[in-house]
Design a protein that fits this description.
This protein has helices at 2-11, 34-37, 41-50, 76-92, 94-98, 124-134, 151-159, 174-185, 189-198; strands at residues 68-70, 102-106, 110-112, 119-121, 140-142, 165-168. Strands 1-2-6 form a 3-stranded mixed beta sheet, with helices on one face. It is globular and about 55 Å long. Helix 1 crosses helix 7 (151-159). 23% of the residues are buried. Helix content is 43%, strand content 10%. With 203 residues, the chain is mainly alpha-helical.
Length: 203
C-alpha cells in the first residue's frame, strides 16, 4: 500500500498509530526458517516496527501496538499480500494471531453518487445487488486500490475508529490452519490442486 502510505501518514493519529508502507509483495516465508529470511529488508522493518520478536522468543508482551492492521488493495494482488503477511505472522510471530492482535481493514470497492450523497459498497455482491434492485447508477466508480481514495476517504476508511471496518483474523483450529497454509504456501503442487478442486477443503 505504498501509494496510499503518504496520505495515511498525514491523517493518522501520530500519538497512537504507526504506518509501515510495504513495497510490493513480501517474501513467502511459510516454509523458510527465520535465519533464512532475517536479512530481507522488509522482514527486518516489520520485526523492528512491531517489537514482538520472532520465532521461539515471539511474544505480544513487548508489542508496540495494540492492533496490527493489514491494509491492502481489494483486488487479487492485495489479497495475496494479505495472505503472505498472515503466513509470516503465523509461522514466525504466531502469538500475534493466536492472541487476536491481527486485523485486516476492509475498504470499499465501489462508490456511487457525489458529494455528501456518495454511497460506498464493500463487495462485488453488495454492489451487484444494488444494481439489480435500483438499476445501473448514473455516477459510479470502481476503486483500483487504496491509492484511489482521497485524503478524507483514507481517514474515514483506514484511520477513524468509528467509521473504519476491521476484520479480526482469528484461528479456531491452529493445527488445521497450519496444514491449510502449508498446502497453499508450500511447494506441493498436487496438494494445491486438491485445494482448488475442493474449494479449500482438505481431503
Amino acid at each position: 500500500m505504498n501509494s496510499a502510505g503518504g496520505t495515511l501518514k498525514m491523517v493518522r493519529d501520530h500519538q497512537t498509530q504507526g504506518v509501515l508502507p510495504l513495497r510490493g509483495k513480501v517474501l513467502n516465508t511459510f516454509e523458510k526458517e527465520l535465519a533464512d529470511i532475517i536479512d530481507n529488508q522488509e522482514i527486518k522493518d516489520i520485526l523492528l516496527t512491531l517489537g514482538a520478536g520472532a520465532g521461539t522468543v515471539a511474544s505480544t508482551k513487548n508489542l508496540r501496538y495494540d492492533k496490527v492492521i493489514i491494509a491492502a488493495d481489494g483486488d487479487p494482488d492485495g489479497g495475496h499480500i494479505s495472505i503472505l503477511l498472515l503466513a509470516f505472522f503465523l509461522k514466525h510471530i504466531r502469538p500475534l494471531v493466536t492472541e487476536g492482535k491481527v486485523y485486516k481493514v476492509i475498504t470499499p470497492l465501489y462508490a456511487i453518487g457525489s458529494g455528501k450523497s456518495r454511497r460506498f459498497f464493500y463487495s462485488e455482491k453488495e454492489y451487484a445487488e444494488y444494481v439489480r434492485t435500483h438499476g445501473q447508477p448514473k455516477h459510479s466508480e470502481r476503486f483500483k486500490g487504496l491509492g484511489a481514495h482521497n485524503k478524507e476517504e483514507i481517514e474515514r476508511f483506514l484511520v477513524n475508529h468509528e467509521t473504519r471496518r476491521l476484520e479480526q483474523l482469528k484461528v479456531e483450529d491452529l493445527d488445521e490452519t497450519m496444514k491449510l497454509f502449508g498446502a497453499m504456501m508450500g511447494n506441493n503442487l498436487e496438494l494445491r490442486k486438491i485445494l482448488i478442486r475442493t474449494g479449500g477443503e482438505m481431503e
